[in-house]
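Hey, I'm writing a tutorial for new members on how sequence and structure tokens pair up, and I'd like a real worked example in the thread rather than a made-up one. If someone can provide the structure for the chain below, I'll link this post from the tutorial.
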Amino acid sequence: MGILRTIIWVFLTIVLVLFAMANWNPVTVTIWPGQVLDTKLPVLIVVAFLLGSLPMWIALRTARWSMKRRLDSSERQLADLRAMANRSTDPAPAPASAPAPVNDIPPSPLDPQ
């Protein structure tokens, strides 16, 4: 599975480099009135993509953190329940000197002796 991920990343990098080489044109961006930025088109596109994906990345990390906390809490509760169940199913220790069992049934006259 790791090799497939590496192949995909290499392919995406090659596509990005080819795109950047084909579109290496200067672009003027007005950030504020009176504030002008001269940059290359691929740089502008990559920065815009990263800025656009930042809110979703933050939302996903927050959800992952929340789910991890809930899972850890559930695992602790499960461990506590298992410990309680093990304590309740452990047999009680036998008394040190148990009396001998009494046989109250008289022998049958038909039993061979």
